[in-house]
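Inverse folding, one chain.
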């Protein structure tokens, strides 16, 4: 039986207690972000927002979902600081919150969304 390939990014845990605590804090932060991403509709919303800012009504139309259902998922994304809002008159526009979130969603978009979104007819 062959051995599994070793990843190039092998690391050792730091022996310094402060550095280890910082690593644990980052692991907790990553875990919380991944929990927020663990819902299909929230992932789909973030996939759409990775293409640019969208209004609630644009998201409703694209997702064929009610305003209440879309708003519920957007509220969770706001709570978890994954999206930010901008108001223009009576409309609210959503976008990806920051560069870290954009990088993560960009990677997921490239793997799971790009081919589908770039198909003819879209």
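Residues assigned per position:
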């Amino acid at each position: 039986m062959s051995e599994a390939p070793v990843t190039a990014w092998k690391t050792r845990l730091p022996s310094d207690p402060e550095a280890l605590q910082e690593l644990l804090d980052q692991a907790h932060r990553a875990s919380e972000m991944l929990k927020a991403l663990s819902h299909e509709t929230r992932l789909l919303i973030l996939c759409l927002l990775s293409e640019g800012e969208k209004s609630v009504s644009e998201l409703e139309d694209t997702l064929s979902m009610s305003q209440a259902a879309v708003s519920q998922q957007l509220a969770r994304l706001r709570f978890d600081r994954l999206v930010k809002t901008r108001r223009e008159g009576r409309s609210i526009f959503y976008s990806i919150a920051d560069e870290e979130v954009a990088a993560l969603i960009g990677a997921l978009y490239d793997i799971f969304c790009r081919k589908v979104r770039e198909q003819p007819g879209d």
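The two ends are 47 Å apart (CA to CA). The first strand starts at residue 54 and ends at 55.
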